[in-house]
Amino acid sequence: MSAEERLLKLKQLQKKRAEAARENRQELFKEHREKAIGKEKLRQLEEKQERSREELEKIRALERGEDYQRRKAWDYTIEENEKWDAKLERRAQNRENAGFKNYSQMAEQAYNKEISQITVDKDRYKLQKAKDGHGTSGVDFHNKPSKEAVDTLVSTLKTGDSRRMKKKSKEEDDTDSYINIKNKQFNEKLNRHYDKHINK
To answer: Which pLDDT score is estimated for 186?
Structure first.
């Protein structure tokens, strides 16, 4: 290794060291700020800064005679935009379906939610179907599901059972201290309101 190469290597190492020191210092400042302000307050401040930056961008775009929403849309790809539209559509649909109407609708919603979480390997299904030689008319009684499919089914059933058991045990614990559900909800509302003032 020549002297020039060693000098170049030394400069690279010095640059890396300076960069690491700068990053460490930034982390230290951030940690100190979090301790002094608190994480929640810091998050609120960052959100406020982001909103103010956005307002400033809107004002600048207005001064230039540009459409701010259109200008902002330039930052997103077509795929991101399609994902966002799909997300908004799901939100609207969820908002529409929110609330209790009847038990059959509630059961249908639970079923659809569980079905939406299932992933189906269509290629594997088609391959299995072609291999067995059964069309739509034949039924294969010897088909055995994979271990992963069985494990997924078992874990889904266990999580559902544990969720129901938690809810049931919580309801059993709470029934002794309240006259009825409305009384329980009212007491919880009071606690939420007054706990803010008491815990200060």
So the answer is: 87
Tokens of 67: 């459409």
The secondary structure element, H or E, covering residue 169 is helix 147-174
Q: Which helix (DSSP H) or strand (DSSP E) does residue 162 occupy?
A: helix 147-174
Query: The tokens 């200060």 sit on which residue?
Result: 200
Q: Is the separation of the CB atoms in 140 and 134 below 8 Å? A: yes
**pLDDT, tens digit, 9 for 90 and up, residues 126-156:** 887 787 765 555 666 677 788 888 898 898 8
Alpha carbon distances (Å) from 174 to 23, 79, 178, 189, 192: 50, 48, 7, 15, 17
As separate numbers, helices (DSSP H) first and strands (DSSP E) second, the chain gives 8, 0
Could you state, in order of their start, the residue ranges of all structural domains in the chain? 1-37, 44-93
Q: Would you state the structure tokens that stand for residue 194, as one six-digit string?
A: 């007054």
Mean pLDDT of 107-129: 82
pTM of this prediction exceeds 0.85: no
